[in-house]
Amino acid sequence: MYQQLYTPKDRKARIAQCMSGSGTNVEKVIAQEERLGKECQYETVAILTDDKRSKAEIIAYNHLIQYIQLDIRDFQESKGLGRKLTLATEAHRKAREEYTAELAGRLRKLEVDFIVFGGFEPLTNIAGEFPCLNVHPGDLTYQKDGKPYLVGLHTVPIQRALDQGIGYVRSSVIQALPYTGIGDDMDNGPILGLGPKLFYEGERDAKKIQDALKRASDWVILPAVVLAVARGEIEVDHETNEVRNQVIMDLEYRISEIREVN
Q1: Which of 1, 58, 147, 249 is 20 to 30 A from 160 (CA-CA)?
Q2: With bands split at pLDDT 50, 70 and 90, how would you rate the model's confidence at 259?
Q3: Structural domains of the chain in order of their starting residue, each with its CATH number
Q4: Which residues have a Cβ under 8 Å from the Cβ of 125 and sit 6 or more positions away?
Q5: pTM value?
Q6: pLDDT at residue 184, rounded to an integer
Q7: pLDDT at 160
Q8: DSSP codes, 224-252
Q9: What is the mean pLDDT of residues 99-115?
């Protein structure tokens, strides 16, 4: 049965944006919010980071948004487990659950309606507490042996596309689902949107392709999906993972056309 991923209320949707690094995706969602002004159906009420080295505080300060730092390495170290992130032991998994509970508690106090992962790296099950949108650097509709093939973190999906000779990359926005730790289930959520395709031509450097993909696809599709969710337009059947009113952008770019500009 299809249900709205978010049902609009008599106010703007209150979103929190979570980030770990440069926060360029977060800034694009904020830019759309500021451009639309009163017509925007969402407002960013907090920017949260798991890494105190990120640019989250600067972005929050520049846009007068509440800043929340919950450094995951500091948190794990406070439990006597060192700073290397892992879920390999029961003690580390328990610490990650406690971290998630702390994160959820802070966001509940802000009456957050849904969360945007704009480059948020740690595995947490906050997706079990709130609807969470995650932008992914791969076309999750591309399958091999009946399963999404362009999965994984950072440049892994891009390298897989290169190895398969697919010829293009594109960003997907999914609903992040709780991480079970059983199998490769990180990128298996409902696909809410697909960004423009970027044909990488003769480029073979996955990092350079990833940088171009952000500009051509991430920065376009993520704000569009956030707005569609806030409007109550996207519906999901959570038994089948099928989505109504996906945001699909049929634009195509070549990597030679993408320049180093924001």
Answers
A1: 249
A2: low
A3: 2-257 (3.40.50.170)
A4: 97, 100, 178, 179
A5: 0.93
A6: 52
A7: 97
A8: HHHHHHHTT--EEETTTTEEES-EE---E
A9: 95
User: Bridge partners of 243?
Assistant: 236
Q: Which residues contact 60 (CB under 8 A, 6 or more apart)?
A: 46, 47, 66, 67
Q: Which of 120-129, 131-140, 149-158 has the lowest mean pLDDT?
A: 120-129
Question: Which residues, at least 6 apart from 14, have a Cβ–Cβ distance to it below 8 Å?
Answer: 42, 43, 45, 110, 111, 112, 113
| CB 235 within 8 Å of CB 5 | yes
CA 32 to chain centre: 16
Q: Which two tokens stand for residue 245?
A: 């009113």
Residues 19, 190, 157, 72, CA torsion sign: positive
The mean pLDDT of 210-231, rounded to a whole number, is: 97
Dihedrals phi, psi of 151, to nearest 5 degrees: -110, 170
What residue type is assigned to position 62 of the chain?
A: N
The answer on pLDDT for 182 being more than 60 is: no
Is 174 in contact with 190 (CB distance < 8 Å)?
yes
- Do the beta carbons of residue 91 and residue 79 sit within 8 Å? yes
Across the chain, how many H-helices and E-strands are there? 7, 14
pLDDT at 261: 42
List strand residue ranges (DSSP E) for the chain, in order.
Answer: 2-4, 13-19, 42-49, 66-69, 114-117, 132-136, 143-144, 147-148, 168-175, 191-199, 235-237, 242-244, 247-248, 252-254
User: What whole-number distance in Å separates Cα of residue 71 and Cα of residue 88?
Assistant: 20
Q: Report d(CA 113, CA 4) in Å as an integer.
A: 13
